[in-house]
Design brief:
The complex is a heterodimer. By secondary structure, chain A is of the alpha/beta class. Chain A has ten helices and 14 strands. Chain B is α/β, with parallel strands linked by helices. Chain B has a single domain, classed as Rossmann fold, CATH 3.40.50. Helix content of chain B is 31%, strand content 23%. The chains are: A alpha/beta, B alpha/beta. At the A-B interface, helix 9, strand 14 and helix 10 of A face helix 3 and strand 3 of B.
């Protein structure tokens, strides 16, 4: 008898191979994944991380979907990978809203990403060189399909919950639409069912900054032994402003000067806010690949869930059995509350089970990553109620 | 944190308990103006209904969601049109009717979305409120909390007014319960013509003809 291809129990702490501290799996080895752009991709590598334990009924799985610049490390990555906290430490952990003593939490580095999943910096098997721009255009739906393949490889069919903020929220909406019946609850946070003109515009500024950097070399910078760090840093600086609010910027920096008492009458970072943005830009280039940034922002721009269902968002959720909980934040001007309301309206139009909470905060779009007690309390309550409904107990 | 949000099960207020009694167990219910979710929580956990709520105040919404209830922020006057016909067995509107902008239209929406509607409202024909008016003061639902200038009551009505509106809309009144000042069911008086004088709160179970 052949050994089972699918492990019955998700690997606990075991990492594929000993060379890399990343936990990865090879997917689509037998049959390539047909992407929305028409290309086939496979086999490809997917990097992921898990927290908590899978229960016997495999009914306690929460898939967390990360945003543009996120990765699979909800909590601190292994020291060999990076020395920094995880991106959702306030939300994931023992006794936290995503309680690792109750749920089995999976987070996957998206297709096209640069934290272990196959992306444009990896080697194109047909040329033996880094993909660069020969990497196929991917969509949010492709990311979700890849996540589904990963879960399959872990022996997981159904999700108790899919949750994510920003681009992660798009995936959390795509999941129940693409795989109806496999998702008990979906929690899109600070997100939208389609990218607005303003969002596309900001993404385009970022992409143009990268492509205008002479070190970009039409995407082939790795072949030239360089990286477009300046362009990527500017892209991050511009984007970072959109993640904050005017009030938060004013409160944090005002017009305060950086380590000086007067202007230098030049173009140094005189102001604290300049210094802060420069720091954000530079540190980002240490951990992120410029081409991945191009591909992932493009995937966000292409996202329009209604368009995938003949132009009707209502049709995306027809006959859905998923329980939704939509969150928005008052000062988020990148994914403002009316965009969440549109999702809620579409769900009401099919009498779906939906909750919607708008959280009062001045922290802007980034609020979903930060310590927001009202958000966490409401999220914890929603999940606990749904867990009771589904008979999920603490492990 | 996740384990400790089970809502305390307090005894329901008299009027809410009568509303709850009118709802069949296991049915689909939409509670409009559900506040902090007291009634909805009771219906979901004690009567096993598939319950949803709409609440205007965000603080109320968040309180409901954090106790595990499916509630959205919304305005009863504006946000009902999106729901499909007959999507609920019961649509409930407790003590909110005088506060809505278009009571007739809202009532129509209740019985479009729901097969039945449960509506409770403060009876402005109640003798104390009449007395208040006779003394030259505008009556309000709750004089302990509100004055004429800050009361949410923009469309006060009496039991007589409400019955007439139901007749106009050709709705069938399946049940009617009238509560006296202390929240007790006004038995004989509640059923007779004096209900409009002695009933403080009225609760109606309606359906379409």
């Amino acid at each position: 008898m052949e050994p089972s291809q699918k492990p019955q129990q998700a690997p606990q702490g075991a990492r594929n191979g000993t060379a890399s501290p990343l936990r990865t799996v090879t997917l689509a080895a037998e049959r390539p994944l047909r992407l929305d752009c028409g290309d086939d991709l496979g086999p490809f590598t997917t990097a992921y991380e898990t927290y908590g334990r899978l229960n016997e009924a495999k009914s306690n799985v929460i898939l967390v979907c990360h945003a543009l610049s996120g990765d699979q490390y909800l909590r601190a990555p292994p020291k060999e990978v990076a020395d920094r906290p995880g991106w959702w430490e306030p939300v994931v952990g023992p006794g936290k809203p995503l309680d690792t003593e109750r749920y089995f939490i999976v987070c996957v580095n998206v297709l096209g990403g640069c934290m272990g999943s196959t992306g444009p910096k990896d080697t194109n098997p047909s040329t033996g060189k880094p993909y660069g721009l020969s990497y196929p255009l991917i969509t949010v739906r492709d990311m979700v399909r890849a996540q589904s393949l990963l879960l399959e490889s872990l022996g997981i069919e159904e999700l108790f919950c899919v949750i994510g903020g920003s681009m992660g929220g798009m995936q959390a909406l795509e999941w129940p639409a693409l795989y109806p019946g496999r998702v008990a609850t979906a929690v899109p946070v600070a997100s939208s069912a389609r990218h607005s003109a303003q969002n596309i515009a900001f993404n385009e500024v970022g992409r143009q900054a990268i492509m205008a950097d002479p070190e970009w070399h039409n995407g082939d910078y790795l072949l030239h032994g360089t990286r477009p760090v300046r362009g990527l840093a500017v892209a991050r600086m511009a984007a970072h402003i959109t993640y904050l609010s005017e009030l938060a910027l004013q409160r944090k920096f005002g017009r305060a000067l950086q380590d000086r008492t007067d202007f230098t009458y030049g173009f140094d970072a005189d102001f604290q806010v300049e210094s802060y943005l420069r720091h954000q830009g530079v540190t980002f280039t240490d951990r992120f690949d410029a081409n991945s940034y191009l591909y992932i922002t493009r995937a966000m721009d292409y996202f329009d869930l209604a368009a995938e269902f003949g132009g009707s968002l209502v049709d995306a959720f027809k006959k859905t059995t998923t329980r939704f909980c939509v969150f928005s934040f008052t000062s988020d001007w990148l994914y403002p509350t009316p965009e969440s309301r549109e999702i809620v309206r579409a769900l009401n139009a099919v009498a779906a089970n939906v909750s919607f909470a708008e959280i009062e905060t001045d922290k802007g779009h980034d609020a979903f990553l930060l310590d927001e007690p009202e958000f966490h309390k409401t999220l914890a309550g929603f999940l606990a109620g749904a867990a009771r409904h589904h008979g999920i107990r603490a492990l | 944190m996740t384990g400790g949000v089970e809502a305390p099960r307090v005894k329901l207020r008299a009027d809410l308990s009568i509303v709850a009694d009118m709802v069949e167990g296991g049915s689909r219910v939409l509670d409009l103006g559900c506040g902090d979710g007291t009634l909805l929580d009771h219906l979901v956990h004690r009567k096993n209904v598939d319950g949803r709520g709409i609440e205007l105040r965000q603080a109320g919404v968040n309180a409901c969601v954090s106790r595990g209830l499916s509630v959205i922020q919304g305005d009863v006057d504006k946000d009902l049109e999106v729901y499909p016909d007959d999507s609920f067995d019961y649509v409930i509107l407790t003590l909110t009717l005088p506060a809505v902008h278009r009571p007739k239209e809202v009532l129509g929406e209740l019985l479009r979305i729901g097969r039945r509607a449960v509506v409770s409202f403060p009876n402005f024909g109640f003798w104390r409120r009449r007395l208040c008016a006779a003394m030259g003061r505008v009556p309000v639902t709750d004089p302990m909390r509100h004055h004429w200038h800050d009361s949410p009551d923009i469309h006060p009505c009496t039991i007589k007014d409400f019955v007439r509106l139901c007749e106009d809309l050709a709705y069938v009144i399946e049940r009617r319960v009238v509560l006296d000042r202390d929240g007790g069911v006004a038995g004989l008086i509640g059923r007779g013509p004096l209900a409009n004088l002695f009933g403080e709160t009225a609760i109606f179970l309606l359906r379409k003809t």
